[in-house]
Amino acid sequence: MNKILVLLLLIFACTTTYSQKQITVVCFGNSTTAFRKGVNKVYSVRLHEKLDSAGVLNQVINSGVGSSHTGSIKDNDFAKVVHAMDRFDTAVLRHHADWVTINFGLNDAYQDNGPGTSARIPLKQYKKNIKYFVRKVRRQGSRVILLTPNPQTSAYEEFRRQNVKAYAEAINKIAKCKNTYLIDTWKLFYDWGQDKPDNIDSLFLDKLHPNDAGHELVAQAIFEIIHKARQ
Questions:
Q1: Total domain count for the chain?
Q2: What local confidence, expressed as pLDDT, does residue 84 receive?
Q3: DSSP string covering 26-39, please?
């Protein structure tokens, strides 16, 4: 009788595993999201593996494009790439994802002509763009996780670091106002580096882009949000 019960439990477990609904996650962002030479596993890959290990059927789509900002190329064409607003429909909405992570700001905040000059995407427009993405994604029934831009290393000028910090603070406020999930990458990196001799610099591949250790921090933070929401 016990053998029959064990067999039935095994059949039930297998059936449950194969019949569970696959979740889709879209990671929308710039070069800190995109696949990158020198990084073995960006956070989208790490997230997929973590969900797999937790027994969650999943598809994680990397919709990161290097040098992209939240606007259209008509807003700022310094980088000749497909920017967020121009690819939003095809890179995000068409997937009808369960979750969408949104990670922009470093390129938006960049001041090509030095301190006191206009950013590529001014802060006011950046906030408007992010709110637009949140609204459209939610309208599809997807959940949103906003990520602040990560900090820059000590090699960057202070005015650039402070400007990016303003964009990170804007994401914090939007997340609170819109009641969305938030990963404060700025704080996450600094919390990690608090007791490290080289502070946060060892989280970077170069002066700006996270290395594998940085991507692991981001992936774990996203995983914890999704995993907790499923419990």
A1: 1
A2: 98
A3: EEEESTTTS--TT-
